Amino acid sequence: MSCEAAVELLIEHWSWLVRDDFLVHVEFCRGFHGESMAAIDWRAAWTALEDGHLPCSSSERQILRVVVSLAEGVPVDLRDAVDCLDAVNSVLVAHAVLAAGGHREAAAGLVGVRSR
Question: How many domains is the chain partitioned into structurally?
Answer without folding.
Answer: 1
